[in-house]
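ok so I'm stuck.
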Amino acid sequence: MDMRNAVADEIAEAGRRDARLVSIGADTRLIFKHFIELFPERFVDVGIAEATAFGVAAGLARSGRCVIVSAIAAFLLRRGLEQLRIDIAEPMLRVVILGVGGGISYGPLGTTHLFCEDLALARLVPNLSVLAPFDAIDAKRAFQWAIKTPGPTYIRLISSERLVPRLPSSSSDPNPLVAEKLHEGADALVLVAGRCVLEAVTAAGELAETGVMIGVRPVTSLRPFPTETIVDDIRRSKCVLTVEEHVHLGGLGATVAELMIQFSIVRPLVRLDLGEAVTRHGSPEALMRSCGVDAGAIVSAVRGLVASSRARSTP
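replied:
not stuck anymore, here's the structure
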């Protein structure tokens, strides 16, 4: 099951539990399909008018409604940023924003639909929680947390149907700040977000076959950030690698680097990301390979880090 279908089920369930819940689409219905079947009178499609969607959402939220807004991420956040900030985020209204196809999900459609800076833009909006789930299960948990949390939340939904393997001890806690490790190892720490999580777990398996054991921790919540957990991880590590489906500025890698400076932690740090921008067409898989954020790139980066770390520790 992909993220959109998983969250569609959760929206319908939330609608059953709360008669105050309403949904708004900007030329978007698929994610609300089950909700519309049950509660057609509680759905509004404003058409290709993303800024209007946020304005309507603000009015409904001020009247006591819990509001869900969804559209293609590139159009929703870029075109509606002013209304999101002023009408929804500053007064801390209860609105859940589902950005469909964030990152490189719509790679075959080109740069109009690519949105690789969405997390950075969202993190700049005051009072806005920012979540980047890595598979359908994580997306359901992110939505469950967001719908119960005061204030607005942005959730990036990507086009991925593959589930990430969990450890047997994994928790079912929907709190995205519970960033549980997916692989244990002491040679290097890999902090990873979104689509790249599965790549990191795949890389961990390949590295383990050669005797290199890495810790893999997914970071779903970019804001609020699991600072205590991540800082403790970094302090226990020999070297750190961050991997993300995002531009170089304003995402996971930048946040980790800032934390290391803030807490005076000196460790080798390498950041794998999409660089300045992605201006090419292609499938998500092809773009990940060409941008160097796939499993092969992670394996190469970890081997380089571990070799450097071992060389420094040799008398």
